Amino acid sequence: MRLATLRDGSPDGRLVVVSPDGGSCAPAPYPTLQSALENWANAAPQLAAVTTFPDALDPEAIIAPLPRAWQWLDGSAYQSHGDLMNAVLGIAKPETDLPLMYQGTSDKFYGPGDDVKFPDEALGIDFEGEFGVIVDAVPMGVKPEQALGHIKLIVQINDWSLRTLAGPEMKTGFGWIQAKPPCSMAAFAITPDELGNDWRNGRVCLTLKVDWNDRQFGAANGEPMGFGFHELVAHAARTRDLVAGTVIGSGTVSNADFREVGSSCIAERRGIEVIDEGAPRTEFMRFGDTVRMVAVDAAGRAPFGMIEQKVVKA
Amino acid sequence: MRLATLRDGSPDGRLVVVSPDGGSCAPAPYPTLQSALENWANAAPQLAAVTTFPDALDPEAIIAPLPRAWQWLDGSAYQSHGDLMNAVLGIAKPETDLPLMYQGTSDKFYGPGDDVKFPDEALGIDFEGEFGVIVDAVPMGVKPEQALGHIKLIVQINDWSLRTLAGPEMKTGFGWIQAKPPCSMAAFAITPDELGNDWRNGRVCLTLKVDWNDRQFGAANGEPMGFGFHELVAHAARTRDLVAGTVIGSGTVSNADFREVGSSCIAERRGIEVIDEGAPRTEFMRFGDTVRMVAVDAAGRAPFGMIEQKVVKA
């Protein structure tokens, strides 16, 4: 099942069920994705029962499948990304065996085609291609094996980052505020079964193709997460209940053979340059630059649709 | 104007306007505080026009004035608190001239009388008495002097913290997840004019009385913030628009003469013990312990009402 949200002037938009070919849609029996997630046991079979799609799906009308969420927690579950980021930021590897995770702003997710506004190019504008899951209500203290059953939907995310601000904010120990403005979501939120065998061990085993200004920049596979999403959910829920509709991210998709497959963010390439050449060479994004992200399976199918955005001056 | 929210089974509760004596209330012309904040230019005069209060205000029915928010950003604006926390956590003073701020979980704020649940006493259960402001929609890049006008309501907050987890999470640079479960709010959200001259320079110049297990623990005054709330709002909005209903906290209220006035959290007292005696002596909270927090003015009046809670095992 694939779900999308259409622009209707309200903050949460209007939920639709998308046809298997992605070209058409039908009104959902729940007005918004948040309302469906709060009643998922009933909503899931009702949404799945929608099998006729009378309306053409206008790509221009698609906003983020969950345009705002009560909670957004982003992990950093790819070790090869973490190592490179430490290199580029000049930060020691964190002394922890637990997942790394930060709480991000959740009141807005950009839609897949929205222009993304930043105040200043000098802030080090960067994309971060990643996957995310959306859970129903999760009780405090959930175990990873139970957490897997709370993962109701999977999404593809661009976690926009401002690198000039990121290092100094990390050094405060308080995490990121200014360095992490709102993220973007690709067009479709999908149920795990849509991925078939590409959803395994709590991981999205698809290749995330990232193009910067129409040139391929990365094509890392989602499989080698150091922690699966079910483990990230359990980590998040250790001392709190998770509200239905909480979004949990993987962190930047990254593979150990990053020199071959490329990267899902600029900072990672700069980390490689620091290691290989002693200093970063690739600059961050400029106003007018574009980024396109699409996760594809072995057959070339793109279950989440696409993110295709331009950065603009606020 | 003082506003409260009453339990009605819905996540956002039902907004009421509270009488000057705090004993009675009237239904508000907006169903929830969030809905009023999204239309504040219209809502404020309509709420202020309510001058008859036909209903007795049942303290048991009061939940947090904003039971959930789209965004919660908490500063750490009292230098004397920061210095003591660095001492107790063994963390160097952050090298920044900017406000310290973290993004916290906002999908739930406990009400003033709710029991507060934690999984384990060994996590270092601690209270943090502070003040907070609620803004209407704030545009990215707002200046502090403009931000002052976006502060529509003031609240009193208990920022629950799990100290055993806090230090290790800080060292990751990602900020707090497990160490910062949901906060609590005192009974009333008030307009700044309610404080008269005790609201000045973007600071709540009231004494925050904190009792732990019915014994006075602290009575620090809110005035000596290193940054005013307007500066915290501007910091938060540097790279993002702030959604209406964003809550911004002061951090633990603390005064330089903490040995005389006491502290608003246990960790701070432990920091004093580390400095004075070489090691902390005061233990953190146990299940069954209570904390009461009330901000009072020179006349003994308590504009926010009270927080009075018990910690229990989840």
TrEMBL record, chains A, B:
SUPFAM superfamilies: FAH. InterPro entries: FAA_hydro_N, Fumarylacetoacetase-like_C, Fumarylacetoacetase_C_sf. One of its GO terms (molecular function) is hydrolase activity. The keyword Repressor does not apply. Keywords: Hydrolase. Residues 73-311 form the Fumarylacetoacetase-like C-terminal domain. It comes from the Bacteria. Residues 1-68 form the Fumarylacetoacetase N-terminal domain. Gene3D superfamilies: Fumarylacetoacetase-like, C-terminal domain. Pfam families: FAA_hydro_N_2, FAA_hydrolase. The keyword Hydrolase applies. PANTHER family: BLL6422 PROTEIN, FUMARYLACETOACETATE HYDROLASE. This is Fumarylacetoacetate hydrolase family protein. It comes from Novosphingobium cyanobacteriorum.
